[in-house]
Target: D-malate dehydrogenase (decarboxylating)
Amino acid sequence: MNEPTYRIASIPGDGIGVEVLPQGEIVLRAAAERYGFTLRFDRFEFASCDYYLAHGRMLPEDWKEQIGAHDALFFGAVGWPQTVPDHVSLWGSLVQFRREFDQYVSLRPVKLMPGVDAPLKTARDIDFVIVRENTEGEYSQVGGRMFSGTEREIVTQETVMTRVGVDRILRYAFELATRRGTPHVTSATKSNGISITMPYWDERAAAMAAEHPDVAFDKFHIDNLAAQFVLRPDHFDVVVASNLFGDILSDLGPALSGTIGIAPSANINPERRFPSLFEPVHGSAPDIAGKGIANPVGQIWAASMLLDHLGERDAAAAVLRAVEEVLADPAVRTPDLGGTATTETCGRAIADAVR
Ligand code: GGG
Model:
């Protein structure tokens, strides 16, 4: 029987994205060799600030044709505020991918890995998933600016929630909690202060909870939820949140479990009408870019999520096991985890562990 072949669009982007993405590719190749499938990588230089400086836009006109037929998108990081404002680079690239490919689920696991020191003593048993709504909410283009540069300046931006958008992310969270076998969903809200959209979110969450009586359900205002993450992170299983709240929580969660450098993210179109995108949670980190010391684990863990999405479950599990094994060894830790290893040393060690 022929080996399955998957086409992967590799998009390094900016800053440390360029350094960590190749380590993810090396590990993916090692997994493909060991588990008997073929990966064909096509590299794209767009969705980077260098591309913007050369072309005046983050993506070419035909970007959907160029990458839309791939089985998955493997992304590094975007942003180089020294040359391109962050809102231009983010909206011109990642936000376009998420919306046009209807990747409405952003899945961000948070787990305390063996051997990784958590900064707080409350962080004993962290293993939860943040399910972030990824296509609407606070990330909207509804709004505007009037009377720019004058005393009368007015700036607005509306949150957009649709019934379809809210229900589908909540349903995904409840179904994921059921699959994880520890069924508990926590919803992030702020309905005391944001008095129209957030009560609507709460209303839909309560309706979804009523449809899933076997799943324990609670909700917290986002300010209290942030505090609860710090005080008792072991309380959480699946945390569902709007676009902005989910983005904030998914930096806080990994920070509690050691470093944002190890955190992965999957931007999923569950219906598989479009390719899904896998990336580290971290951004381009200009402060350490070019030094060869970025932690590649977030990218490599994202590679494991990519394999899982392709249905290569054994390979996905092997990559995650290799990550755990290597993180437990202080000799191959990068500086964010207190070690002295380079990006390449750490990546190579994980690829070797997969083989
Ligand atoms: N690899 C993730 C990345 O490049 N993130 C840049 C960023 O600013 N992201 C904000 C967001 O995900 O909404």
Remarks:
- The chain has a mean pLDDT of 96.
- The chain is about 40% helix and 20% strand.
- The pocket of glycylglycylglycine is lined by residues 77-79, 90, 247, 279-280, 282-283 (CB under 6 Å).
- Residues 17-35 form the longest helix (19 residues).
